[in-house]
Every structure is written in C-alpha cells, then in structure tokens.
Amino acid sequence: MRQEPDIRLHASLPRRFFAAAMFAMLAFFLYKQGFDGGGPAWVRIVLTLAGTAVMVMGVWLWSATEATIVLEDGELRTSNGRLLARVDQVLRVEKGAMSIKPVGGFTLKLKEKGPRGWAPGLWWSLGKTVAVGGVTHPAMGKAMAQLIEAEMLALRQADEAD
User: Of 16, 45, 64, which residue constitutes the final position of a domain?
Assistant: First the structure.
C-alpha cells in the first residue's frame, strides 16, 4: 500500500502564465529593437538572437513548471521521478530573508554534492545546494521547508537515542 506524500509543491496556472508572459514580453521588445531599431547590423542580430534565447527560456519555464515537487518517505523528488535530495543528507534549510534562495522558496545545504540540474521557476541544484521555489506559492514553500526541518530533527533525535 502506497502512502500519501507528506507535501506537494507546484506552480499555479496564474503564476506560470505571468512568468511565461514576462519572458514573452521581453522577447517581444528584443525582437522589436532587433528588427525595427537602428544601429549596426551586428547589434540588431545580437538583439534578435537574445530575443530568441529569451523566448526559448519562456517555453522551457512553462514546460518545467508543469512538474510538482513532492516530499515523501524522506526524499524530495519531482513528479518526473528525479531525486533532488534525501532528508538524511540535508545539513540545514535556509529560508530567511537574507539567504540566497528563489523567491518564495528555500535552499537546502547538503552533506554531499548532488547532480547539477535546473527546472526554471521550480528548482535548481548545484554542488551541495538545492534551491526550491520561484513561481511556486510562498506559503507552500515555507510549509515544505518546515516539514523538512521537522523530519531532520526527528532523524537526529532517533540517531541520538540509538
């Protein structure tokens, strides 16, 4: 029998739409300057290429934010099955105003390096750091961070009892 996940973190449709629209708007302005603006040809080419890169990023963000981050059985995973972190490998959770983290999210500092990865607007992983958040709801990110901290505390207490 499979138990329900502890908590799920996802990006709502309005947040996804707003984030993708910002990329589309930036791409539009870059294209407009690239095609209609004056200046040397190389500048217009660079602006057009930058607009294309921004549009690709917007599509990538839209696709990446379809996934959900799930905390279940002591593991933080995406709904696609990618393991982001195991709770027993987390040294600390950073969620304060002065910490380097995504908007409305949190950062996990791990004991060991994990694989690099990035899902724009949802999570990124580099070295011993996993950051979660971006276009997710801040209250859900805070709840997930607190649940991870509670599981870390329970694991430490169990280790001390042994």
Answer: 64
- 122 in any annotated domain: yes
The pLDDT tens digits for 41-78 are 999 999 999 999 999 999 999 999 999 999 988 899 99
What's the total number of domains in the chain? 2
Enumerate residues 6+ apart whose C-beta is below 8 A from 134: 11, 19, 102, 103, 104, 105, 120, 121, 122, 123
Which three-class secondary structure string do you get for 69-119? EEEECCEEEECCCCEEEEHHHEEEEECCCCCCCCCCCEEEEECCCCCCEEE
| Residue-level pLDDT at 1 | 40
CA distance 58 to 50: 12
Residue 117 lies in a domain: yes
φ, ψ at 91 (rounded to 5°): -85, -45
For residue 124, pLDDT beyond 50: yes
Range of the structural domain that residue 45 is part of = 8-64
In tens, the pLDDT along 92-110 reads 998 877 777 888 889 999 9
86 & 120 share domain: yes
Same domain, 108 and 152: yes
